[in-house]
Amino acid sequence: MNRRNLLKTLGISVGATVISAEALAKLSENKYAYTLPENPLHKPLSKPVTAIILGAGNRGTVYGSYAVKFPEQLKIVGVAEPIPLRNERHTKLHKIVESNRFNTWEDVFKRPKFADAVIISTPDNLHYAPCMKALEMGYDILLEKPIAPTEKECRDILALAKKKGRIVGVCHVLRYAPYFVKMKELIAKGAIGEIISIQHFEPIEHTHMAHSYVRGNWHNSKATTPIILAKSCHDLDIIKWVIDKPAKEIVAMGDLKWFKKENAPEGSTARCTDGCKVERECPYSAIKEYYERRSRTSVLDLPEDKSKHAEVIMERLKTTNYGRCVYRMENDQPDHYVTSILFGDNVTANFSMEAFTSYHGRRTRVMGSMGDMVGDMEELVITDFRSRKELKLVPTADDVEGYKNSGHGGGDLLLVRDFVQAVAQQNPKLLTSTIDESIESHIMGFMAEESRKNKKVMSIKI
């Protein structure tokens, strides 16, 4: 088998077919980089899709960046954001006219419809109301996950989207990452035989946990959403998507074990800046994380003048939650969480979300009747039991032209590209993560949380 035919057999450049034992046996090199082929359903646009961003934080910035690179495809024509600095940045970046700047999402909908779509990247508890209003007014929607904080609200959005015939794309960006796209493709083509079970692991990384789920916006599940949805609905969704069978039952365990007042070290203070005696040796020191390492400072809304950053960071640590002791917050999110799920055809999955790791990046093991897969989003290793040969695939994560590794293994901007095409063509089939497709993994999350709290196995009914 020559190299060209071998690549075709492996589906690296033209779409996957079965990776046979014979193909593996004839492989002279067992490691290949790959990119995904262009979607044949994409069409040139006669004019850009127009959109309004509701919530100009991190995710709104990421999705809006597609318009900066590809203004002929997407144009951001409005922004709603109560934090002046973020509002101003988006206005300048996208050249938004003054009349299309708003402080709150409610202000946007006081105007007649003036764009094709809205991008909802507001806090979790502010997804439902603007989404329902946008649907009523005839907008298509790109909706940051989770869909909404409750099962009823998720189902309400789905029902209204169907009634109005609008597109609601949910930002399950891992479905667009070349790594997971290839994994699903190969499983569907029988590369490892009949799928039996999956083990999936999300290491949050200890300082990320402290940043987002102890000090940060998602520290309290009652004010936002449970961590299984706020952080890991991505993971429940990708498990479901890869297996491609209905979820039947779920059971979950986990709790908040470490970030509690009783674990505060002797000599610690309410803030890291209050003369804490253990701050220099604490792995969660806000001074080390934000002031010295300058890590994750986007949440601090620093001015453009970098000469003022040190002063502003220290002021933020003295006045916001980001400077508070991680053991003295009002947080209630579990710092370790495990779930077991039964799917159709008796396929099982185990998922573990762990705060206390020195690293991040999802890890997955897929067990099949004729082989297995092991991967970490950087590399996917397929082993054939019959030949005992292995193949290593490395996604290049080129995203779209001009970008590399924009986020979530390249999935962030690949999602936006498909959403733009879906809106332009009015064809939701161009998206793999419509609300119809995404609702099941959210139900899995709600049932997991109920199982964890009530210590029982929950049925999943869609």
TrEMBL record:
Family annotation (Gene3D superfamilies): Dihydrodipicolinate Reductase, domain 2, NAD(P)-binding Rossmann-like Domain
Domain Gfo/Idh/MocA-like oxidoreductase N-terminal: 52-171
Every Gfo/Idh/MocA-like oxidoreductase C-terminal domain range: 184-458
GO molecular function: nucleotide binding
InterPro entries: Gfo/Idh/MocA-like_OxRdtase_C (IPR004104), Gfo/Idh/MocA-like_OxRdtase_N (IPR000683), Gfo/Idh/MocA_Oxidoreductases (IPR051450), NAD(P)-bd_dom_sf (IPR036291)
PANTHER family: BILIVERDIN REDUCTASE A, BINDING ROSSMANN FOLD OXIDOREDUCTASE, PUTATIVE (AFU_ORTHOLOGUE AFUA_4G00560)-RELATED
Descriptive protein name: Gfo/Idh/MocA family oxidoreductase
Organism per entry: Arcticibacter tournemirensis
Upper lineage: Bacteria, Pseudomonadati, Bacteroidota, Sphingobacteriia, Sphingobacteriales
